[in-house]
Amino acid sequence: MNKPIKTIGVLTSGGDSPGMNAAIRAVIRTSTFYNKRVFGIYEGYQGMIEGQVKELNARSVKNILNRGGTILKSSRSEEFRTKEGRKKAFEQLKKHEIDALVLIGGNGTFTGAHLFFEEFGVPVLGVPGTIDNDLYGTDYTIGFDSATNVVIACIDKLRDTAESHNRLFFIEVMGRDSGFIALRAALASGALDVILPEESTPLEDLYRELERGTENKKTNKMVVVAEGNHLGSTFEIAEKVRQKYPELESKVTILGHLQRGGAPSCYDRVLASQLGVAAVEGLLNGKTDVMAGMVKGEIAYTFLQKAISNKAVLDTELLRISKILSI
Ligand code: F6P
């Protein structure tokens, strides 16, 4: 029988994503609602090792629902990857009498959480917070919708110049080794083509799309490139295209961390609120070593190990649709 949970700790780890603050708020307020003490752990796992903890209450998280980033700050801790680091973190939890943890983050965060639970038996519950949408066990991760909205707003602006100058634009988007942002943004912005990590298509396919675009008298050509694709860096791809089609004037735009910033969308605020509540209620109902996700509109708890090791699958139907509509 696990000991009853009186105190919960919450942290954010890995890359920040819009909606993390909404999730923090939900965790703090739900804990307070159920008369539990709740501590914010600052700067992710590194802060846990260093004892950067502070007791928070419902008012500590006022006015953050609409803010990007994470008020708890984040880090990618090398030390937490070691057993000694995790031991230090455990000592800090004991010192502050924290009985259970909510971890908001992605793959790396959940890998650490799973190990921590196995080694020290502290109940852990993950909330998927990453723009990459690469976790199994949830249809969407917190931040993905906001990030893709930023991407399409940027592509809309770039199209103005592309159209005015008859240019070809290569727009690089994030996602690490997943193409969720690239695919969805390509479809939503009417891109001519998209280069995805999940597809092993040769450069000739892009050449064919470009030629088709020229034949069909497209005056602007937008190509979305996922950063983790197999054809190389966006600059390398653009250079090869330049050599083959010197008549096409092309530009490269790397959207980079712009995609991670800004106010969360309505969708992300709602999702973060739902998953934050589900995380605390899950812990209080004895769940551990799982991630709270949303599958087909229902809360679903998936073992962390499964959420990390199973691949979130790209909806290739979106690619088919995108190709039909980009003629
Ligand atoms: O995982 C989120 C993410 O933004 C990825 O899309 C990207 O590859 C990576 O983080 C960038 O990490 P950093 O902010 O540490 O450069």
Description:
The protein is α/β, with parallel strands linked by helices and 327 residues long. It has two domains: 7-143 and 264-309, Rossmann fold (3-Layer(aba) Sandwich), CATH 3.40.50; 145-260, Rossmann fold (3-Layer(aba) Sandwich). Helices cover 43% and strands 18% of the residues. It has helices at 20-33, 44-50, 83-95, 107-120, 144-165, 180-189, 203-215, 234-244, 266-284, 304-309, 316-325, and strands spanning 7-12, 37-41, 53-56, 100-105, 124-128, 168-173, 193-195, 221-226, 250-254, 290-295, 298-303. The strands form two sheets. The protein has a seven-stranded mixed beta sheet with strand order 3-2-1-4-5-10-11, sandwiched between helices. Strands 7-8-6-9 form a four-stranded parallel beta sheet, sandwiched between helices. The longest helix is centred in the middle third of the chain and has 22 residues, at 144-165. The N and C termini lie far apart (62 Å). The structure holds 6-O-phosphono-beta-D-fructofuranose.
Brief account:
This protein has helices at 20-33, 44-50, 83-95, 107-120, 144-165, 180-189, 203-215, 234-244, 266-284, 304-309, 316-325, and strands at residues 7-12, 37-41, 53-56, 100-105, 124-128, 168-173, 193-195, 221-226, 250-254, 290-295, 298-303. The protein is an alpha/beta fold and 327 residues long. 6-O-phosphono-beta-D-fructofuranose is lined by residues 15, 106, 130-132, 174-176, 227, 260.
